[in-house]
Amino acid sequence: MPISPDLQNVIIASPSYLQDKGIPQTPYDLSSHACINTRLSLREGINDWELKRDGVALQCRIDGPLIFNSVYAAMDAAMAG
To answer: Positive or negative, the Cα torsion across 36, 41, 47, 52?
Structure first.
């Protein structure tokens, strides 16, 4: 039984990171970026990224150098560049 509404995530990056690495134009471009992942305690493994464009859903596994169990820590790391 759900205990809250569905949560929606966003992809963020610091301005300095985007200036250095460029802005990804497609989900496939994310594979060449240092993405940050989350692993929440209710699930095993790293959470897949669920992306949607023009109403079409895409689930993809994005690798990266950092994994957090807190979205706040992940957000702080992203904003730090």
So the answer is: negative
